[in-house]
Amino acid sequence: CGLLEYIVVDNKYRGMRIARKLVAKAVAKMTSYSGKNPLNAVFIEIEDPEKMHGVDARAAIDNYRRLQLWSNHKYERLDFNYFQPALALGLNRLDNLMLAINVFNSNNDYIDAEILTKFLIDFNVICNRIEDINDPILGIKEMLDEIKSKPDGKVKILKNSINYEKYYPTNVLRADHKHLTRDDVKVLKNSTFFSA
After folding, report:
1. Residue 109 C-beta-side C-alpha neighbours within 13 Å
2. Overall pTM > 0.90
3. CA–CA separation, 157 and 113 (whole Å)
4. What CA–CA distances, in Å, run from 29 to 6, 22, 60, 100?
């Protein structure tokens, strides 16, 4: 399995399919590193609009555009309560995220709990520099226990689960977020982002 952490394209170059090319190159590079073990899936960590509250209009549109990008690349949310543990003393864990996946093998209805567990342990130990995944303050064990409890040892992949249109009207997505109209701001304020 692989992980795409950040894909960034400068505003003035967006809409030119640069992100699509970057994702394709990143997946190709991961595939070349996988050697004899085929690349089964790639994960992404993304902000979840259903869990975000009180963000400004520009941030809201950017989050929806991210959903649009990943939806176009066939990434789907995994059916468990994902969060990023606190990465330092005094910080809170981030509960406003989702973990999504693009599966490359024939069965993309679920992922084996064992594979997901290994990925989460590796990700948190290597990338987040977590030394003890059983530390109750971090809560990683809470996530792993939920995954372990899934029926038949499989975590469901939720189809059409990061479909941006589910969250956000298409006409506002097309608006240039640098020049929001009053109507656009009204729509944003009535969205799930702004509800308490």
Report:
1. 1
2. no
3. 11
4. 15, 10, 31, 20
